[in-house]
Amino acid sequence: MSVLETNRVSKQYPGTLALDEVSVSFEGGKIHALVGKNGSGKSTLVNIFSGAVPASGGTVLLNGSPISFKNPAEAQQNGIATVYQELSLVPGLTVAENILIGRMPMKGPMVDWKKTRKIAQELLEELGIDISPNDVVSDLTVWQCQMVEIAKAMSFDPKVLQLDEPTSSLAQNEVESLFRIIRKLREKDVIVLYITHKLQELWQIADTCTVLRDGKLIGTEQISELSRRQLIGMMFGDVEVKTRPEDLRYGEDVVLKVEHLSDGHRFTDVSFELHKGEVLGIAGMLGSGRTELLNCIFGAQKAAGGAIWLHGEEIKDPNPEMMNRKGVAMTQEDRKRLGVNLDARISDNLCYASLQRLGKGIMVDRAKEKQYVARQVADLGIKVADVNYLVSSLSGGNQQKVVVGNWLNIEPTVMLFDEPSRGIDVNAKQQIFQIIWDQARKGISSIMVSSELEELIEVCHRILILRNGVIERTVLPQDVSIEDLYAISMGE
Amino acid sequence: MTSSKKLSIGNIVKNYTLEIILVALAIILTFVTPHFLTLNNLMNILRNISLQGVVAFGMTIVIVCGELDLSLSSSIALTGVLIGLIGGKLDAAGIMPLQYGVLVGIAAAFVVCTCVGLINGWLITRFRIPAMIVTLAMQNILYGIAAIISNGFPVITFPAWYSFIGSGRIFGIVPVPVIILAVVFAITAFVLSYTKFGRATFACGGNAEAARLSGINVKRTKIISMVIVQLCCVVSGIMLSSQVMSGTFSFARGWEMNAISSVIIGGASIAGGIGKMRGTLLGIIFLGILLNGMTLLNVNDYIQYVVRGCLIIFAVLLSTLKNKK
Description:
The complex is a heterodimer of chains A (492) and B (325). With 492 residues, chain A is of the alpha/beta class. Chain A has helices at 42-49, 72-77, 95-99, 113-126, 142-154, 172-184, 202-205, 228-236, 290-298, 320-325, 335-339, 346-349, 366-380, 396-408, 426-441, 453-459, 482-490, and strands at residues 3-13, 16-27, 30-35, 57-62, 65-67, 80-83, 106-107, 110-111, 160-164, 191-195, 208-213, 216-222, 254-262, 270-275, 279-283, 305-310, 313-315, 328-331, 414-418, 445-450, 462-467, 470-475. The longest helix of chain A has 16 residues, at 426-441.
C-alpha cells in the first residue's frame, strides 16, 4: 500500500509562515479530504506535493523514500498528479488527444490514431466514464471536462492524485456523477487528496479529513467519527471578532430593493431590501452565486428574471454606465484584472468612474480632476509619494483604496463591495472597513460580499446567507456565532 | 515609472531617447551629405511627412484605444477619387462649376469616411471581430470601390486653386501641408490629453473590462476613435490629391504601415493604453529624416523598404521589452 507522508514540512514566504512543521500521512486506497479556511495553508501543501513550490523545511516521503520536485512535470513523472480548479484541456482537440497530449503513440513519423483512441477508450472504460474518446472537448460540459481531466491524470498511473476543488463549478447532479468516478479510484491503491470548500461533500466522498489552520496541522480524523460541529470547531478555533462602532445606525428608508432576482444559472429568486446607511453582508462560499448576484444588480451581467428598484424607481436592463450615473458603485473581487488599469497612473485610476463628472461638455476640468484625486488620497490615506506613479507600484491594500476612491468620487448612494479584503494585509483590511463605516455614517448604503465570514460579523448590520444560489437565511451578527455562520453557509 | 525630477544623465537618456537619436541622425546626415541641412530640404522633409503624419496622429488615438486601422490607405485614395469625380460630374452636368463642385466632393468624402469609421467600429465592438481583420477587409472593399467608380483611371478634374492645399507655400517658404499637419497635431493632442474622450481612450486601451465596469462606455469610445482616424484620412487624401492634382484608386498603398511604425517608434504600446501625440510627431520626423537621408544618399528604393520593415520590428521589440518589466 502506498503512503504519502510529510515530516515537519514548513513553508516560509516573506512575512508569513504558510506551513508550520506539518507532519501528516495519507494511505493509498482512501480518499483524504484536506480542509481549512482561506490562508490555512492547504493550497501551499498541495503545491509542495505537486512540485509547484519547494518546501522551506522538512521532508516529504512517498513510500518511505524522500521526494522533492523542481517543477510540476517532474512530480507528474514521479507519480503525483494534480487536477486544478482551472481546467487545462485544449478545447479544439478530441478527448483522446487531450488525454495523451504530448505523448501520443507513433507509427514512424505519424501519430498512430487507432492506438491513441484505443488507449483513451480503455482508460475511460476502466474509470467508468461514459464519454467517447472522439468527442471534441469544446462540445463537453464542465463536469465532463472535469472527468476527462481526471482520466488524463490517471493515465500517468499516479500514486497520488490531488483534486483541487473539483466541484466548485458543478451542479448538484453533476457532483454525484463525479463522486462515482472518484470512489472507483479507491480500488486502485491511489492516494486521493481531495481539497474542498464544500463541507457537506466530505461525508459523501471522504474517508479521512485533515484540518489545517494558520499553517498548522490541527488533526486528522476518520470522517465517520466526526460531526459537523467538531469539524467547524477544528477549522476555525476561537476567532476574535472585533465589534462594529456603536454609533452606526441605519435608517428606515429602503434605498435598494431586489425582488425575485435570478441569473438563470448561479442564483435564483433572491429578494432583499437595503436601507439608507445600512451595511448589508452577503455570506457565501465560492460558487454560491454571490459575485453573480452583485454583477446582476450592477448590470455587469444580464439578469434572467426579477426586478431591481433603486430609490423607488424600477431599474430596467441595468449596465455599469447607467448604474454609475444613478449613483451605484461596485468594486470588483479580481482587482488586478477588473478593478484597475495597471498601466495607468494613480491619478487616472482615481477618476475613471467620475470621468463624466470632471467638467462640463467634452472637456476635462484639470483643476477639478486634481481636487478629486487629492480628496481621495487624503480621505482614504492612500500612501503614495506621487499620484503620477503607476498604480501597479502600489501595495494591494493601497490599490484597493484607489479602487474605492475611484468610486467615492461619483458620490454614490449605494456601494457594492465584492470581497473588499481579498489579498490585502490586516491593517489595510481594517482601513477598508473603516471607510465602509465612514460612508455609512454619511448615509451611504453598502452591500459587502465576503467568504471571510468573521469579517461580515464585524462589519455588517445584517447578513444574508447565500448557499447554492438561494438565500438560506438572514441573520443579525449579534445573534450568530462564527461557527453557525460557516455551518449555514457551507450547508449543515 | 520614471523616478522623476532627478536630472541624472541616465534619466535624460531614458526620457529623451528618441530626441537624442533624432539629433544624432541629423548631425550624421549633415556631415555625410551637403544637401541635408538646407532650408529647402528641411521644408521638403516636413512636406513629405505631413501627408502620412496626419493619419499617424489619428492612428495614435486608435492604437491607444487598443485597436488598429489598416483600411486607411484605401480611404485616403478613395477621398481623392471622390473629390475629383464629384467635382467633375457636377461641372459636366452644369449644376455647379468645378471650383465649387470639389467642395461638395470634400464634404462627401468626409461623410463616406465617417461611415467607414462607424462601420469598422461597429463590427469590432458589436461582434468582437479583431480590428485587424475588419479593417483589412475594409481596405480591400474601399480599394475596389475606388477603382470601380473611377473605372480604374486617375481622376483629374480638379480646379486650379485646389493645388494650393498640397503644393502652396505660405510666405513662399512654409508648405501648406505643414500648417495642416500642425493644426491636426494640435487638435488630436488636445483631444487625447484634455477631453473626457481622451481619458476614456487610455482607459479602454489599458484595461477595457475594468473601464466598462467603471461605467465608461467602451463601445462608444472605440467607435469614435475609429471615426477620428478616418477623418484624418480625408485630410490626408485631400492633400495627396492636391499635390498631384489627381485622384487615383491605387494611391497611398502601404501607408498604414508607416502610420503604425511612427506611432510605435513614438513609444505607444501596440497593446493599447500607452501613447503620446508628441511621441508620434517625433516618430514621423524620425522616419521622414531617415527616408530623406537614404534618398539623398541614393539608397535604392527597395532597400528603403527593407530598412523600414526592420525598423518596425525593432520598435515593437523595444516597446515590448520596455513594457514587460
